Amino acid sequence: MLLTVSKRLEFSASRRLHVQQWSDAENLSAFGPETNARYGTGRNYIVYFVFTGPVDPTTGMLINISQIKERAEKIVRDRFDHKFLNEDNRAFRDLPSTAENIASQLFLDVAPLFSDVKARLCACHLTASPEHSATYYFSGAYETNYWLEFSAARRTMSPHLSEEENTRLFGEATSIHGHNYRARLTFRAEQFDPGKLSGFVSYDAIEACTRALRSELDHRYLNEEVVGLKDRPFTTESLAQYVYERVTAMIPLSRVRLHERDDFFAEVWDENTIFLGLQVPFHAAHRLHAGTLSDAQNATLYGKCNNPRGHGHRYLTETTIGGEYDSRSGTLYQLGAFRKAIEESIEPWRDRHLDLETQDFRSVPSTGENIVRALWPRIDNPLRQQLVRLRLWETANNRFTLRRT
Length: 405
Known about the structure:
The protein is α+β, with helices and mostly antiparallel strands. The protein has 12 helices and 15 strands. The chain is flat and about 70 Å long.
């Protein structure tokens, strides 16, 4: 099992994507119209610093999130926030300030600050806009993500099932209905190359790809108007497969995640590797307190989270499962059963004080690390051990992730 802790920070900056030795046409092909912003154009950036390591059994923490904020925020504030990156940050004097390069530089600047702790920075994820983000990994690999949006109608059904079987499996979703789909296209390289000045995928390539997909899928009745979907099941899993195949035919793709709602998605890594993800919130109170430490030590360690009267959160869980995809029905897992398993697993914690009203945190602090570890078997068992990743947002800025390895 791999546990990670992520801290979210924000900054604003301007940049111009332009390579001096290239012609205007080459810059336009690589970066799109943004390259014409002679004095820079702006972005509100979001960055996640992702750490992994052992959990301290006394404190229940992999790393003190306040420490991440304190150290990383200084780098972000001094070198990136409210800067014209091309001129105010020397890392981008000769290197375009693409999302990939910014993520890499943030990693390189922040990682050394944590040489005195057991946790290590393992990734830096940067969102440059709702349509584009990038991740740099400690291994030197990196990913770049582009989002595609389209609206379409469908009847959720499989042509390989009888009408009775479709109704039993999909219920009212067999009626015509629509979704505002949002697909994340992820491209990956195993070794980051800062010399690849235009990034991993050029503007022209991604623009041609997304334009073709929108033309084919946007404002269509999928069951009847998309030739490529003929004889396929009309499920989220099957549609994600189709998007994966279409993109891969144009640009080598690592994976695609297709949201039909903000809280539900299907993810495809290749023709046979499919996942489903579902977000479910719950409300609970807790107090961060280690029984083996003194009151003074607890107050120093946990700060305001050690309030004797407790405090609370709207926790958000994201459960991702894998398993055997049924090509006949086009499903990995029946959505209603998936949601029911998660809801029932969370129910004993819902609207409770985790330390005082449950048995799970009688002897361990109710940190995000311990909550996600305690929640894993509760969800995994009713889902027949198909759980592959469990995420817990304590706040929008603090995220805890457990993965099956």
